[in-house]
Amino acid sequence: MCHIQAPAGHETQLTDFVLRYVEQNMGQWCTKPVVLAGDKFQDCIILVFGSPRTAVFAHLDSIGFTVRYGRQLVRIGGPAAETGYRLVGEDSRGKIDCTLVVDENTGALSYDYSREIDRGTELTFHCDFRETETTVQSCYLDNRLGVWNALRLCETVEHGIVVFSCWEEHGGGSVAYLAKYIYETYGVRQALISDITWVTEGVQPGQGVAISLRDSLIPRRAYVDRIRRIAEASGIAHQLEVEGSGGSDAKELQHGAQPWDWCFVGAPEDNVHSPDEIVNKRDIESMLALYRVLMREL
What CATH number does domain 64-125 carry, 2.40.10.500, 2.40.30.40, 1.10.1420.10, 3.50.50.60? Predict the structure, then answer.
């Protein structure tokens, strides 16, 4: 999935991949879901299992760059930017493999390529996927790992909703209508955010999935405490995260008109928003294990 281009606003290729994956694999899942997709939901997907109580949100989109005028680039979301980063894409004249250039004085972004690229073309980091015994490393582990976690979770879900959203990296926009639809149709109002967080001085690689007590927003403590009790009883390795910045699909849940509870539960990564994001496999394993328990117990 890390090789699939899906910058915010142009998630179609990854949406199609997920729909094909669901169609090919749901016959082996514990419960066959109702699949909701199509123009009504733009490029988003909702999978409904049994009689749901909890919804999992995983965003499909990534950061990237948009070609402006001439050789100028504009950020999609908040990508790291260093001269020499390899960028790929496609315009009316074919495949593109170019180099990012950052002006040392102004910080302005441009590209180095043999020709001008069509304005409006999205460029993303070239994928160099690396795996060791203990880690995976690539661009766009945020949030391909969150999507992977949600798809693997589908294997065992009896009752629940799994949502694949769009635009998260560039201001959001899809979760508001998805949350409204889910609440009004199924009465579900508690959520888990399947996304990837940061390695910090308090959240270390290899120590387990992070349960976020807060970021730039503050979830309802009673709900987060329920999740903490379930995690502690499970014995699954986990860490508690406290941050004053950052956000996720949860921001649209909290700012919406429906009474959603939410908690961000995700593996920590280093080299955030760069071509070299890295995550420890133990944290990926504990993330999936905890999600499976939470979907049974919440």
Answer: 2.40.30.40
